[in-house]
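USER: Study each token:
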Amino acid sequence: MLDYDFHHQKPLDQYVVDFFCNELMLAIEVDGEQHFSEEQIRRDKARQATLERIGIRFLRFTNEDVKRNIQGVLAKIEEWILSNSKKID
């Protein structure tokens, strides 16, 4: 997307993120229903905080977002890249 390379199921530290762009240090997570229990929400927050401490930033979407509004999801990712890539260059 926008000439940035994203990798699927990328191992980072002790975790695996759904999509990752090394140049942007951006992880994109697509959360299914299993991510909405209190226990999983707690685990996801801790996991994200660990990865954020090493400089990784996150965008999160639900499976429903992706299934029902993929164009909106892609637009949000593109908007994030356009807003944040200047800070990286």
Q: What stands out?
A: Helices lie at 38-53, 63-68, 70-88.
